[in-house]
Amino acid sequence: MKSVWRQPLFLIGFGIIAFFLGGSFVFEWIFGNVPKQTFFIEENGRAVEGPPISPSWKHPLGTDQFGYDMLAKIMLGAKYTIFAAMAVAALRMLIAIPLGFVIGTYLQRQRSWINALIDPMHYVPMTIFAVILLTPVLWMPEEGFSTTVNERIVIQVVIMALITVPIVATLIGNEANLLYHHEYILAARTLGASRRRIIIRHLFPQLREKMLVLYGQQVVESLIVFAHLGLLQLFLGGTDVDYDPMFGDPPKSISYEWAGIFGNTFRYLQGAPWLPLGPAISFALVILAIAAMIEGYTRAINGQAKIPKRKRMAFVSEETIEWNQQQFKSKLILLKKDTTTFK
User: Fold this and answer.
1) Which helix (H) or strand (E) holds 156?
2) Spatial separation of the C-alpha atoms in residues 24 and 75, rounded to whole Å
3) How many Cβ atoms are within 10 Å of 274's Cβ, its own excluded?
4) Could you give the C-alpha distances from 250 to 114, 260, 263, in angstroms and in order?
5) How far apart are CA 66 and CA 50, in angstroms?
6) Residue 246 burial (C-beta neighbours within 10 Å; 0-12, 13-18, 19+)
7) Phi-psi region of 314 (alpha: psi -120 to 50; beta: other; left: phi over 0)
8) pTM flag (> 0.90)
9) Per-residue pLDDT of the chain (343 residues; tens, 9 = 90+)
10) What are the CA-CA distances from residue 91 to residues 94, 157, 219 (Å)?
């Protein structure tokens, strides 16, 4: 694991994640939970621009339609978004790993029809299942929510984790089944090792690196599903809906998580493109950071932690090459004379 910290890609990705998480806590500790609200920008006592205010030195990412600084909202919501995606991926892996080992070890004969049953799920977007299952939980009814914010977050994390558990479990099961054909596992089974011991002593250590890479991929997938849900007005922790038929506000997020910011500002894409651009860039940066960490970790475990030094090449002058050619020709002529005299 020490070689991972010598990989530039891993360090770059880790630095981006640390910047968002650390900056989120530091920003909240310094400025509080509510970002500053700017109503108008004035020049010479005259209002020249109102919310949404375009990007400037004072507001690098501009402000939303209510005058709140977009950079502040993104920094405050970074911890909720990233930790929620990590929680979904962690719960998914905790459930899928034991199931995968069971499929690959105890259900080897049934593995073919299990794969045939689960393979069609690869072609169905997970967002569809998430919308169907999470709409009753996250969309606020007219009488209000009957659950708390923490309860809705837990329910959302559990449902999003369970959606893709079968796919991840079959993937781990197939990898475990391939290892059963290796000689050292065949030898262990011949010597009387139980299936439980083979899982603990052989399968898990061999698949540990692949499962860490798979965990990073699940974090990326969770972030993408969060973004899709944000476009469909299903926000982390619930969607606050105003049912006033005359002066109702559009659905809004309870917290400042990125999916809520993205969903609330996407309708301003043409008039104020900086509003959805901020959370979209944040999602992209975190996804690229995780991809860089995965690539760096993969290179480290494959023994590519150190960049090999280039070998020094000795250059030979043309005069030396001509002299060697002449020497070779003279020796070849002498060799032919010797062969003729010998005959």
Assistant:
1) helix 149-163
2) 5
3) 20
4) 44, 12, 11
5) 9
6) exposed
7) beta
8) no
9) 567 888 899 999 999 999 999 999 998 888 877 777 777 776 666 666 777 888 888 888 888 888 888 888 899 899 999 999 999 999 999 999 999 988 888 887 887 888 888 888 878 888 899 999 999 999 998 888 888 888 999 999 999 999 999 999 999 988 888 888 788 887 877 788 787 888 888 888 888 888 999 999 999 999 999 999 999 989 998 888 888 877 777 888 887 889 988 888 888 888 888 889 989 999 999 999 999 999 998 888 887 544 444 444 444 556 665 656 666 566 556 555 555 554 4
10) 5, 8, 11
**CA gap 144, 168 in Å, rounded:** 36
Residue type at 244 in one-letter notation: D
Distance CA 80, CA 70 (A): 16
Tell me if residue 67 falls in helix, strand or coil: coil
**CATH H superfamily, domain 79-312:** MetI-like (1.10.3720.10)
What does DSSP assign to residue 69? B
